[in-house]
UniProtKB/TrEMBL annotation:
This is 2-dehydro-3-deoxyglucarate aldolase. GO terms for cellular component: cytoplasm. Belongs to the HpcH/HpaI aldolase family. The lineage of its organism: Bacteria, Bacillati, Actinomycetota, Actinomycetes, Mycobacteriales. SUPFAM superfamilies: Phosphoenolpyruvate/pyruvate domain (SSF51621). Residues 1-147 form the HpcH/HpaI aldolase/citrate lyase domain. The keyword Lyase applies. One of its GO terms (molecular function) is aldehyde-lyase activity. It holds the Pfam family HpcH_HpaI. It comes from the Bacteria. Keywords: Lyase, Metal-binding. It comes from Nocardia nova.
Length: 161
């Protein structure tokens, strides 16, 4: 969870090799370098990294513009459940103030040219967030998709007996 530009800067620094950052140079053991088989990996890695920071609190939302303005931050993802809790609506990410706060954040990010993401498992909410400027929307989660598929498969065979 990111709540300040300084925290976002620390994330970016942790993903960049010196002198641009503080990332350790253990590329011989890194899958990204194909275990040291990419000869120019250290000099080209920074250009292939995408940084998405996640905002899940009122404090982070208040610093949204500063966080999004950090060089190296490519996208901001809004976490509705934790944001709802932070805004006093624990367990209710559909609460009007939460949805409005998310829509405002998405509009702001879109206007700033920063990719903006959010999760919305309700189709109407997903469409609302897309209309507000979301660049990407998580509309399903692996565990729930797997569970629903398993439940449907179970019902198929349960109904056969």
């Amino acid at each position: 969870m990111i709540e300040s530009a300084e925290a976002a800067q620390a994330v970016v620094a942790a993903t960049r090799y010196p002198p641009a950052g503080i990332r350790g140079v253990g590329s011989a053991f890194a899958r990204a370098s194909r275990w040291n088989r990419i000869s120019d990996y250290l000099s080209t890695a920074d250009s292939s990294i995408s940084i998405t920071v996640q905002i899940e609190s009122a404090a982070g939302l208040a610093e949204l513009e500063n966080i999004a303005g950090v060089e190296g931050v490519d996208a901001v993802f809004i976490g509705p459940a934790d944001l709802a809790a932070s805004l006093g609506h624990l367990g209710n990410p559909q609460a009007r103030p939460v949805v409005e706060a998310i829509e405002g954040a998405l509009r702001s990010l879109h206007g700033a040219g920063v990719a903006a993401g959010v999760n919305a498992f309700d189709p109407a909410t997903a469409r609302r967030y897309i209309a507000a400027g979301a660049s990407f929307v998580l509309v399903g989660a692996d565990v729930t998709l797997l569970a629903r598929g398993a439940e449907a498969l179970t019902q198929t065979y349960r109904n056969d007996t």
